UniProtKB/TrEMBL annotation:
Protein name: Sugar phosphate transporter domain-containing protein
InterPro entries given in the database record: EmrE-like (IPR037185), Sugar_P_trans_dom (IPR004853), TPT_transporter (IPR050186)
Residues annotated as domain Sugar phosphate transporter: 17-304
Major localization class: membrane
GO cellular component: membrane
Bilayer topology annotation: Multi-pass membrane protein
Keyword entries, A-Z: Membrane, Transmembrane, Transmembrane helix
Keyword Aminoacyl-tRNA synthetase: no
Name of a matching Pfam family: TPT
Source species: Colocasia esculenta (Wild taro)
SUPFAM superfamilies hit by this protein: Multidrug resistance efflux transporter EmrE (SSF103481)
Membrane-spanning parts: 12-31, 43-68, 80-101, 107-127, 134-151, 157-174, 195-212, 232-253, 260-281, 287-304
């Protein structure tokens, strides 16, 4: 009886984790969209810097004080340089993604984001000697075709937003491939929580000059906005904390479920985000756009299946 109760509690815990992962992921995406597009807070680099500052502070609290995971030390300058390189690519990905949200609806943003496996396969092909089975590459055809169809049928298509979103997706894939190459030796491997602990402060250092140069008087404008409407401060604080919880829940869900479950949940998460965003923001969608997005998701599922079978 005790064992059944333990299993039930464990299942409830996993379901709670998945719900927290979905809520934080979709919440940060929708809040980013609201702030950058609807609210009129036109500072994506500063917003990303707020996210990274929260990730730096909360990562330290979680690892050094709360001992969520053991702290892993950076062992050499070479390892630090590798982490800094990953942080630069990570910054590029997040900033580009946030810029794209100013111009594109969440539904289209997610459709483009679903092509990450295509870019991962391309970078892995170019940068490593690892080759996939031909059937794996064939499954990438519907992934790309779906986005081409979705682009043609997107009523709110914006070329600059599209380029930024493709750039963000490519950078996200590049980071995962680089991470596999740079931190592959046993002595240098870091779990995702420790990697974030080191990457986030480097990201803040990289983003600070970019914010000051490219987003003129952003602090003054934000403070002026806060005097008119103090909700902006709460939005930024909540959004930044949520950005950290995306990483925390992602780590915990990965730890407590299988890789396959994570893939299935990840594919479904994009679809849930699309439905919720359409309900909230009421952006126009076309049948062509939805068919394109569906084709991309089917391609991603086939790609995951082909990779699993050819391992």
């Amino acid at each position: 009886m005790e064992k059944v109760k333990g299993t039930g509690n464990s299942r409830m815990f996993t379901v709670g984790l998945v719900l927290a992962w979905y809520s934080s992921n979709i919440g940060v995406l929708l809040l980013n969209k609201y702030l950058l597009s609807n609210y009129g807070f036109k500072f994506p680099i500063f917003l990303t810097m707020c996210h990274m500052t929260a990730c730096s502070l909360l990562s330290y609290v979680a690892i050094a004080w709360m001992k969520v995971v053991p702290m892993q030390a950076v062992r050499s300058r070479v390892q630090f340089a590798k982490i800094a390189t990953l942080s630069l690519v990570f910054c590029g990905s997040v900033v580009s993604g946030n810029i794209s949200l100013r111009f594109l609806p969440v539904s289209f943003n997610q459709a483009i984001g679903a092509t990450t496996p295509f870019f991962t396969a391309v970078f892995a092909y170019i940068m490593t000697v690892r080759r996939e089975a031909w059937i794996t590459y064939v499954t990438l055809i519907p992934v790309v075709t779906g986005v081409i169809i979705a682009s043609g049928g997107e009523p709110s298509f914006h070329l600059f937003g599209f380029i930024m979103c493709v750039g963000a997706t490519a950078a996200r894939a590049l980071k995962s491939v680089l991470q596999g190459i740079l931190l592959s030796s046993e002595g240098e491997k870091l779990n995702s929580m420790n990697l974030l602990l080191y990457m986030a402060p480097i990201a803040v250092v990289l983003l600070l000059p970019a914010t000051l140069m490219m987003e003129d008087n952003v602090v003054g404008i934000t403070l002026a906005l806060a005097r008119e409407d103090n909700r902006i401060i709460w939005y930024l604080l909540f959004n930044s904390a949520l950005a950290y919880f995306v990483n925390l829940t992602n780590f915990l869900v990965t730890k407590h479920t299988s890789a396959l479950t994570l893939q299935v949940l990840g594919n479904a998460k994009g679809a849930v985000a699309v439905v919720i965003s359409i309900l909230i923001f009421r952006n126009p969608v076309s049948v062509t756009g939805m068919l394109g997005y569906t084709l991309t998701v089917i391609g991603v599922i086939l790609y995951s299946e082909a990779k699993k079978r050819n391992k």
